[in-house]
Amino acid sequence: MQQPDGRAERRRRDGQEQAALDTRGLEFGHMTGEGFLEPVTGRYMIDYGSFAQVCMDGKTFGGLSGRSLRNLRPVPARMRAGEVLWLLRLLPGTTDARPEGAEILRGTLCRKFAVRVDPAQAAAASGGICPPLPA
Question: Nearest CA to 70 among 83, 56, 81, 82?
Fold first, then answer.
């Protein structure tokens, strides 16, 4: 059996330290990332610091940040309900919206709205690719 030379442990510890930096000031379970989104083409790429996700051609891939697409793993269809585009796909189904105040997020004033959506209308407007709403 091969003895560890300390590199794997060092990488594990470095990853934990980076994760602690990436989530500083966030509630447990919340993540922050940077990337781009092209709603018309259904493409996006987000880097969360230690994990990245890419969606293109109707397929979603995920894995360690900085890896090429061929080294990322496909995300199973059953796990894609939380994909980034689902909220945008609901917008065409909006039946009612009203202002609900504002708050400052990372130094930027953001307006909040209460919105009612008809999921069937949203699915029809998105060509049937709008995922079902969580129960």
Answer: 56
| 82, 62 contact by CB (below 8 A) | no
Nearest to 85 by CA among 56, 49, 114: 56
pTM passes above 0.85: no
d(CA 106, CA 102): 13
* Percent of the chain whose predicted confidence (pLDDT) is above 70: 65
Contacts 24+ apart (CB under 8 A), 18-27: 18/49, 18/50, 19/49, 19/50, 21/49, 22/48, 22/49, 22/50
